[in-house]
Design goal:
single chain; 5 helices; mainly alpha
Length: 95
């Protein structure tokens, strides 16, 4: 698979999905005073209902310079996924 299209890889998407679901569960119990909480809850609900696009989220993750560099180098990127997924949550929630 070409590295530019790595986000389409089902194993990669499954790994991203795991961390997106983990983040969504955490969002559902976060304080209402959290920045962008209402939008985060709406997006978390879509994630937990299975109506958000994991391909699009995986695309966002794969554009992270650290993850992309490790994919291009053929090295393990798993340790970076949760950090990147959490960092993108607000963007996908519409902040």
């Amino acid at each position: 698979m070409e590295n530019a299209n790595y986000y389409l890889d089902h194993d990669f998407q499954d790994k991203v999905k795991f961390y997106v679901v983990k983040a969504a569960v955490a969002v559902m119990s976060e304080a209402e005073s959290t920045d962008n909480h209402a939008a985060r809850v709406v997006f978390a609900g879509k994630v937990l209902a299975g109506t958000s696009s994991m391909a699009m989220y995986a695309l966002g993750v794969s554009t992270n310079a650290t993850v992309k560099g490790k994919i291009d180098a053929g090295t393990d990127y798993d340790s970076d996924l949760e950090f990147v997924v959490n960092g993108l949550f607000n963007a996908y929630a519409g902040e």
